[in-house]
Amino acid sequence: MVMDALAKPNENETVLKVRQFIAERGADGWDKAWEEDALFWDNGYEQKALVEALELDSSVMNLPPKGRALVPGCGRGYDAVYIAHKLPYTTIGMDLSPKACVAAQQYADSSPLGKQNKLDLSFVAGDFFTYNPEEKFDFIYDYTFFCAIPPALRPDWGKKMNELVKPGGYLITLAFPLDGDRPGGPPYSVNLPAYVAVLGSDWEKVLDKIPNEVIGTSVGRMRLVIYKKL
Ligand SMILES: C[S@@+](CC[C@H](N)C(=O)[O-])C[C@H]1O[C@@H](n2cnc3c(N)ncnc32)[C@H](O)[C@@H]1O
């Protein structure tokens, strides 16, 4: 299975390789995937659905003019760089793999969005599930993080989102891949009730739509869903 149209030709092989690393090493398998350049998900640009989300009318998502944003499982940081470029926010990309964070910093330093602007952006190597920042976030953005973690960790994902988003803040999800009951992963198949079940009742869904622009193999498998913390 593939995660994007711009996938490398040996995509299926790479997915299997990453699964093998994770089967052998647990979560440390992600760092091995970065070491081996087995990055089947790495499509080289920010998500168009994120661009759409950050241009929404304030009647849908009313972000404060300044604030803090978090991107867990940020990978090479395309989306974190975009957020820090688009908003005057302190933006943190975090990834379990130190190698991912080095690659993300290199991308931030060399990409047009990063190098032409002084971004308030940093990359933290660490485990989302044990992350305890001093301040909470105005929004957290999840794309291909929920699908990367074993389904048994989803309740912990929900608990951590509840801890880390400020009251009145937002969780922006690009729910993907919506593959029904396809077994196996990562990427594990997701569905919208799975997010809601672990977030609990302290959230209001303020948007749930197919993004305006979905390309390649993401077509039919992605929704932009935004929750507001009550
Ligand atoms: C499928 S990749 C997606 C990367 C990025 N969101 C993108 O779309 O390019 C999942 C990323 O999550 C990271 N990751 C996995 N478990 C994590 C954890 N517990 N805490 C933080 N990052 C984690 C992996 O190292 C990997 O870079």
TrEMBL record:
SUPFAM superfamilies: S-adenosyl-L-methionine-dependent methyltransferases. The keyword Lipid metabolism does not apply. Transmembrane segments: none annotated. PROSITE patterns: SAM_MT_TPMT. Gene3D superfamilies: Vaccinia Virus protein VP39. One of its GO terms (molecular function) is S-adenosylmethionine-dependent methyltransferase activity. GO terms for biological process: methylation. It holds the Pfam family TPMT. Keywords: Methyltransferase, Phosphoprotein, S-adenosyl-L-methionine, Transferase. It comes from the Eukaryota. This is S-adenosyl-L-methionine-dependent methyltransferase. It comes from Schizopora paradoxa.
